[in-house]
Amino acid sequence: MIVNISEAKTNLSKLIDMAYHGEEVIIAKNNLPLVDLVVHKPKGKRTLGLLAGKIDIPEHFIDEDGDINDMFYGK
After folding, report:
1. Which residues 6+ apart lie within 8 Å of 27 measured at CB?
2. Beta 2-4 vs 32-37: how paired, if at all?
């Protein structure tokens, strides 16, 4: 199915549903095909621990600071 941009704007939800269910949807400008509307496919799984061993987090990183607590909650 080929649709012009103005029609695609009007019927975007319908076109997305059609593409999701396997139909070929092409968006055109002045009847010249520009882009295919396709279902997103993830490129791969995310890698956990990518920065392991590359950064150093100090031991006291999570400790509260008394001066900052005083600013927020008063003395």
Report:
1. 2, 3, 4, 5, 8, 15, 33, 34, 35, 36, 37
2. unpaired
Task: Write down the pLDDT at residue 51.
Answer: 86
Nearest-angstrom CA–CA distance, 12 and 23:
14
Say how far apart CA 9 and CA 73 lie, in whole Å: 51
Contacts of 24 (CB under 8 A, 6+ apart): 1, 36
Average pLDDT in the chain:
92
What 3-state class would DSSP assign to 20? helix
pTM: 0.57
26: β partners: 2, 36
H-only helix segments in the chain: 5-10, 12-20, 66-73
